[in-house]
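Subgroup meeting minutes
Present: P.N., E.W., G.H.
Scribe: E.W.

1. P.N. recapped why we're keeping a running log of single-chain structure predictions: easier to compare across weeks, and new members can see raw inputs and outputs side by side.
2. G.H. added today's entry (307 aa).
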Amino acid sequence: MTTTWTRAAVAVVAALAAAATAVVPLLAVEAQAQAQAHDTATAAPVLLRSAGASTLAWRATAPARIVIGRSRLGRDIVAVRRGSPTAGKVLLVLGQMHGSEPAGRAVAAKVAVLAPPAGLQVWIVSTMNPDGSVARRRTNARGVDLNRNFPYGWVRAVRSIYYPGPFRGSEPETRAMAVFLERLRPDLVVSLHQAFNSVDVSSAKTHVWAVRLATALKLRQVAVPCGTGPCHGTMTSWYNSTYVGAAITVELPRAVRPSWATYDARAILSVGALLVPPITTPTPTPTPTPTTTATASPSATASSVAS
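Output recorded in log:
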């Protein structure tokens, strides 16, 4: 399967994956990303990336708690793992991208304390926008909507609550998540938002998983609107255009009670369990029944001769 992605966007993520660690100076990373953003090379088809040997090795050796990056104001962005690091399938739950949408964090917290299904490792990022979460605002501290700042489909726009930033991948939160996803390459990403009370089923690639999530969560199946126009530079569109795995936007209701958060967490894990192939027990080959030829007993033979 192939998709079209600009060489500039490929180069941005490659540069970020190579350079973005907790100790890399922020300005140096921004300079790299901005230089790549000016590349307007013709789009070329690229293969969707799968989890190869290096990804499996990283998963197996990664600690159960990772600071994947820091926010614009220096707050930690943390990912935690539940389940075996060698489990064959991976589910990532992102609790919050927009700081004004807190319900997903409550659901993610419940996911983090529930036992994961067998054969599945579950990663939880409570929030990738800690500054916005503290301020209870949609954007990060720079006023950028992180869900318009990812490389794929990014477009320049004026400042608003959907401001995409000065260039693609301009924000440290975006870069942190992009690099983490590049390393982990999960099979399913569930990105929690509010408050359209629905699951986005607009992508043909992810439709089956989106319907499963909508059914399990008892949410409507819709093509999620984004402001007054199409979404640009979103995390899910970037992931789905770059990796084999599926990334799906889930819009929770405006209010989520604690009991609902537990229900939602269990529902997400139940869908994640479907990633794991069922264990099939080989049907034993029946042992053929030996056949025998009936013979007359000696006494019967003797009796016949005597007659």
